[in-house]
Design brief:
The chain is of the alpha+beta class. The protein has one domain (about 30-180). Helix content is about 25%, strand content about 15%. The chain is built from four helices and seven strands; from the N terminus they run βββαβααβββα. The chain has helices at about 55-80, 100-110, 115, 175-180; strands at about 30, 40-45, 50, 90-95, 125-130, 135-140, 145-155. It has a five-stranded mixed β-sheet with strand order 1-7-6-5-4. It has a two-stranded antiparallel sheet with strand order 2-3. A hairpin with a 6-residue loop joins β5 and β6. The termini are far apart.
Length: about 190
């Protein structure tokens, strides 16, 4: 019996339901509609925190983020997405085994990631972006709109831990920039 050869030119389906990478020259955009993405939380059961030491540390990190990482992502976003983990080795989808932790952090921060997903598979859309040091931006990459929606900042590189980038004393940190700025003045 002869084997049937499929000569169709159909492309394999994407592993991401409802999403296809944008193949245009439109620049990667940032959706900053999530008002809690700068909030810090401490999830002791999972040994995760993005609390900071103090206001000065926040200023240092936020300067790195807005002066370095975000412009770099904006300028090289298409290359970062297409070559995930290669040239830009700290820019890649969040690993499957870390998705539950990302979801816990987003829920603790007050983000309903399920409503952001519109019924789409969440995992492959969660991305980590970093260049050097321990600062990482965790975001949802929306393939259909070629946009990033920041979820939170992983200041201490604890979503994908690394001995090289993790700090040792972060467990004692208690500064949340969002809570601090929202305190009523006396």
């Amino acid at each position: 019996m002869a084997r049937k050869v499929n000569n169709s030119s159909k492309k394999p389906r994407s592993s991401v339901k409802g999403n296809r990478p944008v193949d245009s020259d439109s620049p990667l955009t940032f959706d900053l509609s999530n008002k809690n993405w700068l909030k810090s939380v401490n999830i002791k059961n999972d040994n995760y925190t993005n609390m900071l030491r103090n206001e000065k540390e926040f200023i240092d990190y936020i300067t790195q983020l807005f002066h370095g990482l975000i412009p770099l992502i904006h300028q090289n976003g298409k290359e970062m997405i297409k070559g995930a983990g290669k040239k830009w080795r700290h820019c890649h989808p969040v690993q499957d085994e870390k998705i539950d932790l990302v979801q816990k952090v987003t829920e603790e921060i007050g983000i309903d990631f399920k409503s952001d997903q519109d019924g789409k598979k969440a995992g492959p859309q969660f991305w980590q972006f970093g260049v050097k040091g321990n600062l990482r931006l965790i975001a949802i990459y929306d393939y259909t709109n070629n946009s990033l929606k920041p979820l939170f900042i992983d200041y201490h590189h604890l979503i994908h831990p690394s001995i090289k980038y993790n700090q040792l004393d972060y467990e004692n940190y208690s500064f949340c920039p969002l809570e601090e700025s929202l305190k009523p003045s006396l």
